[in-house]
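Both lines are given unchanged directly below:

***
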Amino acid sequence: MERVFRTPIKEMIDRFPQVGAILEDYGIGCVPCSVGTCLLSDIVEIHNLSTEYEEALMMRIASVVAPGRTVRLPEARKSRSGQPRKVTWSPPMKRLVDEHKLIKRFIALVPAIAGRLGVEPTAGRKLILDGVDFIRSYADRTHHAKEEDILFAYFDPGLDILKAMLEDHRRGRAHVKEILDDLERRDFGGIVENLYGYAGVLTEHIKKEDEILYPWIDRNLSTRQVGEMFARFREVDERFHEAQEKYESFVGTLEKTFLAQSAEGSR
């Protein structure tokens, strides 16, 4: 099975589609990944599976890629036991997770924002511009910049998991650019399509970071690195302190507005 461990996951799934379904059963969402060059061995390590889970996973994969053969895991991998522990965030990781919460609150409003376009085009246009400002200034310039300029710099840029995260950032930015282009063309159908496209990319992206990347990073950072990173994050927060309050207020106001409209419409 050592050869299986060293196979890029997309190559394996292309040859054996059932492997993708097996990985999904263990909470490993490799099928929609836009990169897919991670080795199976790296995926198991990054997801911090217990030895028991790893053995069960590999047995199921082996039954697909090498039916009838006995699986023996490399001895070096038999070092974990029990269920994966509950995540306790380091201060810098907790800051990023908290920022995700505000971004997810905005994403949850996308259906309401999209619905406004067809009813009130003028108000909808301003809403789109304000939403793009939130995405570019908060989600991208503040949050993603912390990741790209600070967090990822502590690791090898060639790591496939980082490549996957950066590709998600690129795809999100592409949707935002298309939203603005569609706005200029008054292509409201295109705006809605790209709003939902952005929401889909970011929803999956945040899930991967909260459940996979950030816990893996916390397991691999030294105490000194955690302190250093937190200090650098605070410097960013201090520079964008007013922006933080502005965008929390923006999302909160949208939530109240759409909630009030929903209540009015249900009467």
Remarks:
- DSSP finds twelve helices and no strands in the chain.
- The mean pLDDT is 85.
